[in-house]
Amino acid sequence: MSKQLRILVPVKRVIDYAIKPRINKAGTGVEKAGVKFSMNPFDDIAVEEAVRIKEKHKNLVEKIHAVSIGPAKAQDILRTALAKGADTCTLVDAKEAELEPLAVAKILKKVVEKQNANLVILGKQSIDDDCNNTGQMLAGLLKWPQATNAAKVVIDEANLRATVTREIDGGEETISAPLPMVITTDLRLNSPRYATLPNLMKAKKKPMEKLTLSDFSDVDTAPRLEVVKVEEPPARSAGIKVASVDELIAKLKDAKAI
Protein backbone atom coordinates (compact mmCIF):
# COMPACT_ATOMS: atom_id res chain seq x y z
CA MET A 1 0.00 0.00 0.00
CA SER A 2 1.26 3.50 -0.82
CA LYS A 3 2.15 5.66 2.19
CA GLN A 4 -0.63 8.13 1.45
CA LEU A 5 -3.91 8.68 3.26
CA ARG A 6 -7.04 9.28 1.21
CA ILE A 7 -9.82 10.03 3.67
CA LEU A 8 -13.51 9.70 2.79
CA VAL A 9 -15.99 11.50 5.04
CA PRO A 10 -19.72 10.78 4.48
CA VAL A 11 -21.98 13.59 5.71
CA LYS A 12 -25.77 13.71 6.00
CA ARG A 13 -28.23 16.61 5.82
CA VAL A 14 -30.61 16.41 8.79
CA ILE A 15 -33.05 18.64 10.63
CA ASP A 16 -30.96 20.96 12.81
CA TYR A 17 -30.32 19.51 16.26
CA ALA A 18 -31.76 22.63 17.93
CA ILE A 19 -35.16 22.14 16.24
CA LYS A 20 -37.88 20.07 17.91
CA PRO A 21 -39.21 17.71 15.20
CA ARG A 22 -42.95 17.74 14.49
CA ILE A 23 -45.02 14.90 13.03
CA ASN A 24 -46.58 15.75 9.65
CA LYS A 25 -50.35 15.86 9.23
CA ALA A 26 -50.42 12.52 7.44
CA GLY A 27 -48.69 10.81 10.36
CA THR A 28 -46.15 9.26 7.99
CA GLY A 29 -43.01 11.02 9.17
CA VAL A 30 -41.44 14.24 10.40
CA GLU A 31 -42.50 17.59 8.94
CA LYS A 32 -39.71 18.91 6.72
CA ALA A 33 -41.30 21.98 5.12
CA GLY A 34 -40.02 25.29 6.45
CA VAL A 35 -37.56 23.62 8.82
CA LYS A 36 -33.87 24.44 9.21
CA PHE A 37 -31.47 21.72 8.09
CA SER A 38 -27.77 21.35 8.83
CA MET A 39 -24.98 18.79 8.86
CA ASN A 40 -25.50 15.81 11.14
CA PRO A 41 -23.53 16.67 14.34
CA PHE A 42 -21.68 13.35 14.44
CA ASP A 43 -20.62 13.84 10.80
CA ASP A 44 -19.44 17.37 11.63
CA ILE A 45 -17.14 15.76 14.19
CA ALA A 46 -15.93 13.32 11.52
CA VAL A 47 -15.06 16.20 9.17
CA GLU A 48 -13.17 17.95 11.96
CA GLU A 49 -11.20 14.80 12.79
CA ALA A 50 -10.24 14.28 9.15
CA VAL A 51 -9.04 17.88 8.91
CA ARG A 52 -7.06 17.56 12.15
CA ILE A 53 -5.36 14.44 10.84
CA LYS A 54 -4.45 16.31 7.66
CA GLU A 55 -3.11 19.27 9.63
CA LYS A 56 -1.00 17.00 11.84
CA HIS A 57 0.22 14.73 9.04
CA LYS A 58 0.63 17.19 6.16
CA ASN A 59 2.82 14.91 4.04
CA LEU A 60 0.73 11.82 4.70
CA VAL A 61 -2.78 12.92 3.72
CA GLU A 62 -3.29 13.16 -0.02
CA LYS A 63 -6.86 14.45 0.18
CA ILE A 64 -10.11 14.55 2.12
CA HIS A 65 -13.20 13.73 0.06
CA ALA A 66 -16.67 14.43 1.45
CA VAL A 67 -19.76 12.64 0.13
CA SER A 68 -23.46 13.08 0.80
CA ILE A 69 -26.35 10.90 -0.32
CA GLY A 70 -29.58 12.88 -0.22
CA PRO A 71 -31.54 15.67 -1.91
CA ALA A 72 -29.95 18.32 -4.13
CA LYS A 73 -30.07 20.73 -1.16
CA ALA A 74 -27.38 18.60 0.50
CA GLN A 75 -24.95 20.67 -1.57
CA ASP A 76 -25.08 23.16 1.31
CA ILE A 77 -23.57 20.79 3.85
CA LEU A 78 -20.98 19.63 1.32
CA ARG A 79 -19.93 23.25 0.83
CA THR A 80 -19.68 23.53 4.61
CA ALA A 81 -17.43 20.44 4.68
CA LEU A 82 -15.27 22.00 1.95
CA ALA A 83 -15.10 25.27 3.91
CA LYS A 84 -13.89 23.38 6.96
CA GLY A 85 -11.06 21.69 5.09
CA ALA A 86 -12.29 18.92 2.77
CA ASP A 87 -10.61 19.08 -0.65
CA THR A 88 -13.26 17.62 -2.96
CA CYS A 89 -16.77 16.22 -2.65
CA THR A 90 -19.49 14.13 -4.27
CA LEU A 91 -23.24 14.63 -4.12
CA VAL A 92 -25.32 11.53 -4.83
CA ASP A 93 -28.73 13.04 -5.56
CA ALA A 94 -31.25 10.61 -4.14
CA LYS A 95 -34.15 13.09 -4.56
CA GLU A 96 -36.49 12.55 -1.61
CA ALA A 97 -35.78 8.83 -1.27
CA GLU A 98 -35.39 7.67 2.34
CA LEU A 99 -32.50 5.25 1.96
CA GLU A 100 -31.91 2.65 4.64
CA PRO A 101 -28.43 2.11 6.13
CA LEU A 102 -27.63 -0.96 4.01
CA ALA A 103 -28.39 0.90 0.76
CA VAL A 104 -26.30 3.85 1.93
CA ALA A 105 -23.42 1.52 2.85
CA LYS A 106 -23.54 -0.15 -0.58
CA ILE A 107 -23.37 3.23 -2.35
CA LEU A 108 -20.57 4.38 -0.06
CA LYS A 109 -18.62 1.23 -0.91
CA LYS A 110 -18.76 2.22 -4.59
CA VAL A 111 -17.57 5.74 -3.73
CA VAL A 112 -14.73 4.37 -1.59
CA GLU A 113 -13.57 2.26 -4.52
CA LYS A 114 -13.87 5.14 -7.00
CA GLN A 115 -11.93 7.52 -4.75
CA ASN A 116 -9.41 4.81 -3.81
CA ALA A 117 -9.94 5.82 -0.18
CA ASN A 118 -8.13 3.94 2.57
CA LEU A 119 -9.70 5.58 5.62
CA VAL A 120 -13.40 6.30 6.13
CA ILE A 121 -14.43 8.53 9.03
CA LEU A 122 -18.15 9.03 9.60
CA GLY A 123 -20.55 9.82 12.41
CA LYS A 124 -21.60 6.85 14.51
CA GLN A 125 -25.26 7.67 13.74
CA SER A 126 -27.49 10.37 12.29
CA ILE A 127 -29.83 12.22 14.62
CA ASP A 128 -32.89 11.67 12.40
CA ASP A 129 -33.19 7.87 12.31
CA ASP A 130 -30.55 7.02 15.00
CA CYS A 131 -29.84 3.69 13.27
CA ASN A 132 -26.10 3.49 14.07
CA ASN A 133 -25.66 0.87 11.33
CA THR A 134 -24.03 2.44 8.28
CA GLY A 135 -20.40 2.45 9.44
CA GLN A 136 -20.53 -1.16 10.59
CA MET A 137 -22.25 -2.31 7.39
CA LEU A 138 -19.73 -0.42 5.24
CA ALA A 139 -16.82 -2.06 7.06
CA GLY A 140 -18.44 -5.46 6.51
CA LEU A 141 -18.98 -4.84 2.80
CA LEU A 142 -15.40 -3.61 2.36
CA LYS A 143 -14.01 -6.36 4.63
CA TRP A 144 -12.05 -3.69 6.50
CA PRO A 145 -11.30 -3.39 10.23
CA GLN A 146 -13.62 -1.02 12.09
CA ALA A 147 -13.52 1.06 15.25
CA THR A 148 -16.83 2.49 16.40
CA ASN A 149 -17.71 5.31 18.83
CA ALA A 150 -14.22 6.82 18.65
CA ALA A 151 -13.29 9.20 21.47
CA LYS A 152 -9.64 9.51 20.36
CA VAL A 153 -7.86 8.69 17.10
CA VAL A 154 -4.08 8.42 16.67
CA ILE A 155 -2.47 7.74 13.29
CA ASP A 156 0.88 5.92 13.19
CA GLU A 157 2.39 7.57 10.12
CA ALA A 158 5.35 5.21 9.83
CA ASN A 159 3.25 2.03 9.79
CA LEU A 160 0.01 3.51 8.37
CA ARG A 161 -1.92 2.26 11.36
CA ALA A 162 -4.79 3.74 13.40
CA THR A 163 -5.26 3.45 17.15
CA VAL A 164 -8.73 4.32 18.42
CA THR A 165 -9.87 4.80 22.00
CA ARG A 166 -13.57 4.29 22.61
CA GLU A 167 -15.68 4.63 25.75
CA ILE A 168 -17.38 1.49 26.98
CA ASP A 169 -19.34 0.60 30.11
CA GLY A 170 -16.96 0.93 33.01
CA GLY A 171 -14.00 2.47 31.22
CA GLU A 172 -12.20 2.75 27.90
CA GLU A 173 -11.18 0.31 25.18
CA THR A 174 -8.29 0.78 22.75
CA ILE A 175 -8.36 -0.77 19.30
CA SER A 176 -5.47 -0.74 16.83
CA ALA A 177 -5.46 -1.95 13.23
CA PRO A 178 -3.62 -1.30 9.97
CA LEU A 179 -5.32 0.79 7.32
CA PRO A 180 -7.61 0.61 5.39
CA MET A 181 -10.14 1.10 8.16
CA VAL A 182 -13.60 2.48 8.99
CA ILE A 183 -13.92 4.74 12.04
CA THR A 184 -17.20 6.08 13.45
CA THR A 185 -17.11 9.15 15.67
CA ASP A 186 -18.60 9.89 19.09
CA LEU A 187 -19.39 13.31 20.56
CA ARG A 188 -16.32 13.43 22.80
CA LEU A 189 -13.82 13.05 19.96
CA ASN A 190 -13.47 16.79 19.27
CA SER A 191 -15.23 20.14 18.99
CA PRO A 192 -15.84 21.07 15.33
CA ARG A 193 -14.58 24.43 14.06
CA TYR A 194 -16.88 27.01 12.50
CA ALA A 195 -16.93 27.52 8.75
CA THR A 196 -15.83 31.12 8.24
CA LEU A 197 -17.37 33.31 5.55
CA PRO A 198 -14.10 33.62 3.56
CA ASN A 199 -13.71 29.83 3.57
CA LEU A 200 -17.36 29.38 2.54
CA MET A 201 -16.67 31.66 -0.43
CA LYS A 202 -13.55 29.67 -1.33
CA ALA A 203 -15.53 26.42 -1.03
CA LYS A 204 -17.69 27.47 -3.97
CA LYS A 205 -14.63 27.10 -6.20
CA LYS A 206 -13.75 23.60 -5.00
CA PRO A 207 -14.86 20.69 -7.20
CA MET A 208 -18.18 18.95 -6.52
CA GLU A 209 -19.01 15.77 -8.43
CA LYS A 210 -22.74 15.28 -8.96
CA LEU A 211 -24.20 11.79 -9.39
CA THR A 212 -27.67 10.26 -9.11
CA LEU A 213 -28.95 6.90 -7.93
CA SER A 214 -29.06 5.82 -11.58
CA ASP A 215 -25.25 5.91 -11.54
CA PHE A 216 -25.50 3.10 -8.98
CA SER A 217 -28.03 1.00 -10.89
CA ASP A 218 -26.43 -2.24 -9.67
CA VAL A 219 -27.13 -1.28 -6.06
CA ASP A 220 -30.46 -2.41 -4.60
CA THR A 221 -31.87 0.61 -2.77
CA ALA A 222 -35.38 -0.79 -2.29
CA PRO A 223 -36.56 -0.31 1.31
CA ARG A 224 -36.87 -3.39 3.49
CA LEU A 225 -38.93 -1.65 6.15
CA GLU A 226 -42.36 -0.08 5.94
CA VAL A 227 -43.37 2.82 8.16
CA VAL A 228 -46.95 2.18 9.21
CA LYS A 229 -47.48 5.25 11.37
CA VAL A 230 -45.52 7.93 13.18
CA GLU A 231 -47.02 9.54 16.27
CA GLU A 232 -45.99 11.63 19.26
CA PRO A 233 -45.34 9.75 22.52
CA PRO A 234 -48.26 9.98 24.96
CA ALA A 235 -48.15 12.97 27.29
CA ARG A 236 -46.91 12.12 30.76
CA SER A 237 -49.33 12.69 33.61
CA ALA A 238 -48.25 14.87 36.50
CA GLY A 239 -46.59 13.20 39.46
CA ILE A 240 -47.77 13.34 43.08
CA LYS A 241 -46.03 13.90 46.39
CA VAL A 242 -46.36 11.43 49.25
CA ALA A 243 -45.93 12.13 52.93
CA SER A 244 -44.26 8.88 53.98
CA VAL A 245 -42.60 5.68 52.82
CA ASP A 246 -45.72 3.70 53.75
CA GLU A 247 -47.85 5.92 51.51
CA LEU A 248 -45.31 5.52 48.70
CA ILE A 249 -45.46 1.72 48.98
CA ALA A 250 -49.27 1.80 49.01
CA LYS A 251 -49.34 3.96 45.87
CA LEU A 252 -46.92 1.63 44.10
CA LYS A 253 -49.03 -1.38 45.04
CA ASP A 254 -52.17 0.37 43.74
CA ALA A 255 -50.35 0.99 40.44
CA LYS A 256 -49.22 -2.68 40.43
CA ALA A 257 -45.63 -1.47 40.16
CA ILE A 258 -44.60 -3.78 43.02
Order of helices and strands: EEEHEHEHEHEEEEHEH
Please give the CATH architecture: 3-Layer(aba) Sandwich
CATH class: Alpha Beta
Could you tell me the CATH topology label: Rossmann fold
Strand content: 25-35%
Q: Strand arrangement, largest sheet?
A: 9-8-7-10-6-1-4-5-11
Helix content range: 25-40%
Radius of gyration: 22 Å
Low-confidence stretches: none
Main location: mitochondrion
Subunit structure: Heterodimer of an alpha and a beta subunit.
InterPro entries: ET-Flavoprotein_bsu_CS, ETF_a/b_N, ETF_b, ETF_beta_N, Rossmann-like_a/b/a_fold
Keywords: Electron transport, Mitochondrion, Transport
Key traits:
9-stranded mixed β-sheet; 6 helices; alpha/beta; about 260 residues; Rossmann fold; about 25% helix
Please give a structural write-up.
This protein is α/β, with parallel strands linked by helices. The chain has a single domain, classed as Rossmann fold, CATH 3.40.50.620. Helices cover 26% and strands 27% of the residues. It is built from six helices and eleven strands. It has helices at 41-56, 75-84, 101-115, 134-142, 197-203, 245-254, and strands at residues 5-10, 13-15, 37-39, 61-70, 88-93, 119-123, 146-156, 161-168, 171-178, 181-185, 208-212. The strands form two sheets. The protein has a nine-stranded mixed beta sheet, sandwiched between helices. β4 (61-70), α2 (75-84) and β5 form a beta-alpha-beta unit. α2 packs across α5. It is globular and about 70 Å long. The relative contact order is 0.18. The model has no long low-confidence stretch (mean pLDDT 91).
